[in-house]
Write a structure and sequence with these properties.
The complex is a heterodimer of chains A (about 500) and B (about 375).
Chain A lengths: L8 E5 L9 H5 L5 E4 L4 E4 L9 H5 L5 E5 L12 H13 L4 E2 L14 E3 L20 E3 L7 E3 L2 E5 L4 E3 L3 E3 L9 H14 L3 E2 L16 E5 L8 H6 L2 E5 L10 E3 L6 H7 L7 E3 L9 H14 L6 E6 L4 H10 L4 E5 L8 E2 H6 L4 H14 L7 E5 L5 H10 L3 E4 L1 H6 L22 H4 L4 H25 L15 E3 L4 H7 L2 E2 L3
Parallel strand pairs in A: 11-21, 12-13, 13-14, 14-17, 17-18, 18-20, 20-21, 22-23
Antiparallel strand pairs in A: 1-4, 2-3, 5-19, 6-22, 7-10, 8-9, 15-16
Chain B lengths: L3 H5 L12 E7 L5 E2 L1 H9 L9 E6 L9 E7 L2 H14 E8 L13 E9 L10 H15 L3 E5 L4 E6 L3 H8 L5 E2 L1 E6 L15 E3 L2 E7 L4 H10 L11 H13 L4 H8 L4 H5 L3 H14 L8 E7 L2 E6 L8 E5 L2 E5 L2 H7 L5 E3 L7 E4 L8 E3 L6 E5 L2
Antiparallel strand pairs in B: 1-10, 1-16, 2-9, 3-8, 3-10, 4-6, 4-7, 5-6, 11-12, 12-13, 13-14, 14-18, 15-16, 15-17, 18-19
The chains are: A alpha/beta (about 500), B alpha+beta (about 375).
């Protein structure tokens, strides 16, 4: 049956400019274009277009414009075009609607309702071009206090990782993203002196030389896990939840499980890789504690262990339990966190904005006097360096970026990651497509991004009269809210503008 | 307290071109000296203040009651005094109490009532085994946060803080400080910018026998404060300087760290310097930055911290506020301006500008280490402890 859906996008071709070079046909992985040799014309199947913009960007004569389809249903504030389309798709297919990337609903973005402080005459700003500005961040448990015994300073030997800048690449597994992207992230983290996260899909052997800059995940699927996997890395992360799809697991379709992925994940080629929602050995906080300590035991207590959860309603209480269970680092992933594939209904309706969850967790850990016991990392929709600065002032030690890193590699957030047809070669295992990311060029783009954001963070530090990122952590006096209700200011723990 | 800023800044000027002044002097032999030198010196820096706050801390002033906690308390009203005294009688043994003698001056208008109580905390009312200092600290916070119109601004033994809204010379005259003798004198002329001038917010800021006078602004205040709150410190004085007093109390009294280490925590070297150090020093600074990164004091500051037996002059690590140190015989001086020192002691054995982040520490002779140390930390080594 022909689909009864309106095409989402229109392809507008300027025939005067088009030279029938067929680049658009070769570049489009969603079969929008074909060539009618008889009439020497390019033909469009607009209903397939996802607006990834690959064709328009690479068209040598700028003959293509992709825009929203003007056709519309009768305007209705309740039955929007999206809700009608979703309903019709389900009537046609009888299935759960899938989507990729993070929540695109117009939830209030709290970063945009927070303004930063700047120094003036009584407290001079500091010029980062002339004075040292410190972004180095150490993740891991901290001692409650130091002691001097017999004239010696006693230093507790808690494991840690050092970051040259408080920005890390969040978990994106090999399988969800292409090998070239995965390699770009690993190389860039190494070059900058920060961390990349293997996600739950194993860790190819040839990339283990970047071990000092690698976080390995222990997720419910346990793909690619062995003792070497843990010990070759700098840090181990237990993944409980993910912001884009709290409370559910992952699924890599069998057709994506190539020979190399099969070897990396230690599963048969062509088999579906299912990571269930719960770890089947974790049904309580006590179980989590046992896994944390099992991993510490396996790594001889030399690696910090983090636990990642999605931001949910009682995240502060959960985080408190995780810290007491021995987690050295707590990761909270907000509702705008990205994903390769998620049920659309969950992505758009489950979880909390990371800004509120982060502030609430930091406050709770401080109230309980255990903030030193773990570092706090937040993720989920970090878009720029000011989001990072604000996150740190709300209480984070560092952030993960995911979607932003993929954008540096070419992603245009067309939200079709789950199809495996990513035209930019990012979320695909198709060798023809994945070659579109050159790992050396990709590395440079990521290094550039982190460098640019780090420079901007230094500028923001300087304007606040602060020369070390440590003095921003939890320093909510550097923030003011605007356009926020009292309860929102209360959760964020910040004053309103002008106060 | 009463809205004294209206009295002292009647035109509500946003800015008066001026700054804070700090001055400290210590006799390292422990000889009690008159405050005239200190009063003269701080008065010489009149132009650095604007009359919205000044104060003095003096050590060794109550030799007849050396073991009693001397609580200096200011009250808005008689009712707040009665309420506080009921509280004190319930939780402290009071050996002596009196109104602090004052010498009214024209310029000090509408001052609070100021009393001092020489006390010992009663232990019987608590089920916990805690040391006396902790009990006093806790009860001071209790008064400051729960009794309307009462404020404890000095709580150490054999020392006292005298402060208020006015210029230093006015406050000295108001309290008749020329009648007191002590072996450490620190003082402050204040130009408050973050908060209105009020009696409790004038410097020195103190807890137990720790006092701090400060010139500058601590831009890490929010981070420092939230860290200290985890350890039970309640910030009540509406100024950034109190975090320094509480941090010193936490680090030196409760965590048992030497003052040199405390100053390294406040102003550690930058990471790039630490990377170039030898293994022992590197481990030491990594440990203190790792554990106490939230107590790094950021922003411009020059402080004089004092407690029994020690006076420490210290600036931020990129030295955004002035500090001069001088020595004459067994007297050590620290000041915002050299002119103030020269005025009271024209011939100095040594005068110098300390390096940013390197404290000048003056100690009583006969105590461990040298009587004056500059930037010298004396931690022989670090041990990595298995956990």
């Amino acid at each position: 049956m022909r689909t009864a859906l309106l095409p989402e996008f229109s392809v507008v071709r300027d025939e005067n400019r088009c030279i029938q070079c067929r680049v658009c046909e070769r570049q489009c992985s969603f079969d929008v274009y074909s060539y009618d040799a008889g009439n020497n014309l390019m033909v469009h199947r607009e209903e397939n277009c996802v607006a990834c913009q690959r064709c328009s960007v690479l068209c040598p004569t700028n003959a293509l414009v992709i825009k929203m389809n003007d056709y519309t249903y009768r305007p209705n504030a309740n039955w929007t075009r999206e809700s009608i389309s979703d309903l019709k798709k389900q009537a046609e297919t009888g299935g759960v609607l899938l989507t990729g990337m993070g929540c695109d609903k117009p939830l209030k973005n709290y970063w945009d309702h927070i303004l930063l402080n700047a120094s003036q005459v009584t407290n001079p700003s500091i010029d980062p071009l002339r004075e040292p500005m410190e972004l180095r961040t150490r993740l891991g448990r901290k001692a409650d206090h130091l002691e001097i015994r017999n004239g010696n300073l006693e230093v507790p030997d808690y494991p840690y990782v050092d970051l040259s800048t408080p920005i890390m690449f969040g978990a994106m597994s090999y399988g969800a993203i292409s090998y070239n992207c995965f390699k770009s992230l690993a190389q860039a983290a190494h070059e900058v002196g920060t961390m990349f996260n293997t996600g739950e899909g194993g860790w190819p052997r040839e990339l283990r030389k970047f071990g000092t800059n690698t976080i390995v995940q222990c997720a419910s699927g346990r793909f690619g896990l062995d003792l070497e996997y843990f010990n070759d890395a700098a840090m181990v992360e237990i993944k409980i939840g993910q912001g884009a799809k709290p409370g559910i697991g992952g699924h890599l379709p069998g057709e994506k499980v190539s020979a190399h992925i099969s070897q990396t994940r230690m599963i048969p080629m062509g088999s579906d890789a299912i990571s269930p929602a719960p770890h089947h050995d974790i049904y309580s906080i006590e179980d989590l504690q046992m896994l944390v300590h099992a991993l510490k035991e396996a790594t001889d207590y030399r690696k910090p262990v983090s636990v990642k959860i999605s931001a949910v309603h009682n995240a502060p209480a959960i985080a408190s339990g995780m810290v007491r269970a021995g987690a050295d680092i707590i990761v909270i992933d907000g509702v705008r966190g990205g994903t390769g594939a998620a049920p659309k209904i969950l992505r758009d309706n489950v979880g909390l904005p990371i800004e509120l969850a982060l502030a609430a967790v930091d406050t709770r850990l401080r109230e309980e006097g255990i903030r030193n016991w773990a570092s706090l990392v937040c993720s989920g929709g970090i878009r720029n360096s000011s989001d990072i600065f604000k996150a740190i002032a709300l209480g984070a030690d560092a952030v993960y970026i995911g979607t932003a890193a993929l954008m540096a590699l070419g992603c245009t957030v067309c939200q079709k990651c789950y199809t495996g047809k990513c035209a930019w070669g990012i979320t695909t295992q198709d060798p023809y497509l994945s070659k579109r990311v050159n790992p050396e060029i990709g590395t440079q783009a990521l290094v550039n991004l982190l460098r640019a954001w780090s420079l901007e963070i230094k500028e923001m530090l300087g304007c606040a009269g602060i020369n070390s990122i440590e003095s921003v952590r939890g320093n909510r006096l550097q923030l003011r809210g605007i356009g926020l209700e009292d309860w929102e200011l209360g959760v964020l723990g910040i004053r309103g503008a002008g106060q | 307290m009463k809205n004294l800023s209206r009295v002292n800044n009647p035109y509500n000027d946003d800015k008066v071109i001026s700054q804070c002044s700090i001055f400290g002097m210590m006799n390292t032999s422990g000889k009690l000296i008159s405050g005239m030198q200190c009063i003269t010196a701080i008065t010489n820096m009149h132009e650095r203040g604007n009359g919205l706050g000044a104060g003095f801390a003096i050590y060794g002033i109550y030799p007849d009651r050396p073991d009693d906690y001397a609580l200096h308390i200011m009250f808005d009203t008689k009712i707040s005094r009665e309420e506080t005294e009921t509280y004190l009688k319930r939780l402290f043994d009071i050996s002596f109490a009196e109104e602090v003698p004052i010498f009214p001056t024209e310029s000090i208008i509408n001052p609070p009532y100021i009393y001092r109580y020489f006390v010992h905390p009663k232990l019987k009312d608590t089920h916990e085994i805690v040391d006396e200092d902790d009990l006093v600290t806790r009860r001071v916070f209790k008064i400051n946060t729960s009794i309307e119109g009462a404020f404890v601004f000095s709580s150490g033994k054999n020392m006292g803080v005298f402060k208020g809204v006015g210029f230093p010379e006015e406050i000295a005259q108001f309290f008749g400080l020329e009648h007191y003798r002590g072996y450490i004198w620190t003082s402050h002329g204040r130009f408050p910018t973050n908060t209105q001038g009020w009696w409790g917010g004038a410097h020195p800021l103190s807890l137990l026998d720790w006092t701090v006078v400060h010139n500058g602004e601590i831009s890490s205040y929010g981070a420092n404060r939230r860290f200290l709150e985890m350890y039970g410190y309640v910030c009540t004085m509406q100024t950034d300087t109190e975090v320094v007093a509480y941090a010193v109390d936490l680090l030196e009294r409760k965590h048992g760290l030497p003052i040199e280490v405390v100053m390294d925590i406040f102003s550690p070297p930058v990471w790039e310097q630490i990377d170039r150090m030898n293994s022992g020093d590197r481990k030491y600074f990594e440990a203190i930055r790792n554990t106490y990164g939230s107590l790094l004091l950021n922003g411009p500051f020059a402080i004089i911290v004092a407690h029994h037996g020690e006076m420490i002059a210290h600036t931020d690590r990129i030295r955004l506020r002035p500090m001069v140190a001088g020595i004459k015989g067994d007297t050590v001086y620290a000041s915002s301006e050299e002119s103030a020192i020269r005025l009271v002691c024209p011939e100095l054995d040594k005068v110098w500008i300390p390096t940013g982040g390197h404290p000048v520490i003056a100690r009583l002779k006969g105590t461990e280490g040298h009587d004056v140390v500059e930037g010298g930390r004396e931690i022989p080594g670090t041990i990595v402890m298995e956990v």
